[in-house]
Design brief:
It comes from Nitrincola tibetensis. With 439 residues, this protein is α+β, with helices and mostly antiparallel strands. It contains eleven helices and eleven strands. Helix 5 packs across helix 11.
């Protein structure tokens, strides 16, 4: 077997493999004789089918099978011999495959990049911390109460925090525009769900009132054709309802799966959940920042085969997130362009993490694995049962170990960098993480 390698562009390699005709003929003859002994044909006794008949009837298919097996075997021998690391399956092109001649084919594929990790000690990282103040806890409980609020229709003018049911239509330069019309829409005044000026313009309007609102679309509005445009909305108020917040009692607590009967106990549970969310938010922000810096310091090419594979994963995750899996929605219908940047980032970070693990010989620490599992389990009714389940499932346990390894790489990078710490408010700490999750 003869092998030659050519770098065509970036990570792409073309490997030309030549296999002697004798090897092909030998494998073909071996398979022909095997079939002559085992194949059953009308007119012939079992095991007595002549080789010539097998060749005439099945020779072409047998040769194709042999070529497929030979290509698979010789390709992996060739990349092993040349110390290449394919990042995806090869595209095979036959140059010579005639009977009696040497087999020659070209395998085109991408290889993993060679990574030389750059010094991270000069990188500046801003690490945030935050505390949960009593007012943060009060605000969260107020939010929970609003989520469970009841609405009662009233015969008065609308005020802040009231809910109005409205019909409206929007006009720009006297012309109605697409998406600017709705009927029977419920809107809470002060929710900031509409563009500036819309909600405040409805304060003081009672049921059956007709209101004209002159507003301007923000410069960063999501619809390109509406950015910065002045608009007139004609609004009809159908009804006004006021909010009735539930009492802080056992019935209210049970709606959130909390068995506490006292207000203090409920507040303690809410604070615990807020602390868990805060820890996750701060970690997510820090991880995002550190890995962004890691990419900036280590500019590497990534195999398109790995990016395409990650795009498929992201497509499926998007379908599952929005319930498309139940509707048998085909993930491939989602445009590839939606996921390219995210997929490329994930592949880049993954390759750099693997290299950091290898170079620094990082192994998942058992204590950290245990701590991670216990944190996950504490939100369940029977934490020990969940812990035992994790440790009884090797596949799931390996996923946890992979998460722990990533965290240990994060710690390694932070310890290598220049870190400045600052304390921020709970609200400031949480908001960016929520935006990132939405993105």
């Amino acid at each position: 077997m003869q092998v030659s390698v050519e770098t065509t562009s970036g990570l792409e390699r073309q490997v030309t493999v030549t296999v002697p005709a004798e090897r092909i003929d030998q494998d073909v003859n071996k398979l022909v004789q095997q079939q002559a002994r085992t194949r059953r044909l009308d007119g012939f006794r079992p095991g007595k089918v002549p080789v010539s008949v097998i060749k005439r009837m099945f020779g072409k298919a047998i040769r194709e099978d042999v070529l497929s097996q030979v290509v698979q075997e010789t390709f992996y021998k060739a990349v092993d011999q040349e110390k290449l690391m394919p990042a995806g399956g090869p595209n095979i092109e036959f140059r010579k495959d005639k009977e009696g001649e040497d087999l020659e084919y070209i395998a085109t594929f991408e290889v993993y990049p060679e990574i030389v990790l750059q010094d991270f000690s000069g990188v500046e990282i801003a690490k945030q911390s935050a505390d949960i103040a009593e007012e943060d806890l009060d605000k969260m409980i107020d939010t929970l109460r609003k989520q469970q609020a009841e609405w009662t229709e009233v015969e008065r003018a609308a005020a802040e925090n009231d809910r109005v049911r409205i019909n409206f239509e929007g006009f720009i330069d006297g012309e109605a525009f697409d998406g600017g019309r709705a009927e029977g829409m419920d809107l809470v005044i002060g929710s900031n769900s509409m563009i500036p000026g819309f909600e405040t313009g409805l304060v003081g309007a009672a049921a059956n009132a007709e209101v004209e609102l002159n507003v301007t679309f923000p410069e960063d509005y999501h619809a390109e054709n509406l950015k910065g445009k002045p608009a007139l909305f004609k609004v009809t108020v159908l009804s006004v309802s006021e909010q009735k917040l539930p009492e802080l009692n056992e019935e209210f607590f049970s709606r959130f799966g909390i068995e506490e009967t006292s207000v203090d106990g409920f507040r303690a549970e809410v604070r615990k959940n807020m602390a868990r969310e805060l820890k996750h938010a701060l970690k997510t922000k820090l991880k995002d920042q550190v890995f962004t810096k890691l990419i900036e310091v280590n500019q590497i090419d990534v195999p398109s085969a790995l990016v395409d594979r990650e795009i498929d994963v992201l497509r499926k995750q998007a379908v599952q997130q929005f319930g498309g899996a139940n509707a048998q929605f085909d993930p491939n219908m989602l445009p590839k362009e939606m996921f390219v940047d995210q997929a490329k980032r994930r592949v880049t970070v993954g390759l750099l993490i693997q290299e950091l693990i290898k170079v620094n010989e990082i192994q998942p620490e058992d204590a950290k694995v245990r701590e991670t599992i216990e944190e996950m389990a504490e939100t369940y009714q029977d934490p020990q049962e969940v812990i035992d389940w994790y440790y009884g499932n090797d596949e799931i346990l390996n996923q946890i170990k992979a998460l722990v390894l990533e965290d240990q790489v994060l710690d390694h990078l932070i310890n290598s960098a220049k870190v400045t710490e600052s304390n921020v408010s709970y609200e400031e700490a949480i908001k960016p993480a929520q935006r990132q999750a939405a993105e």
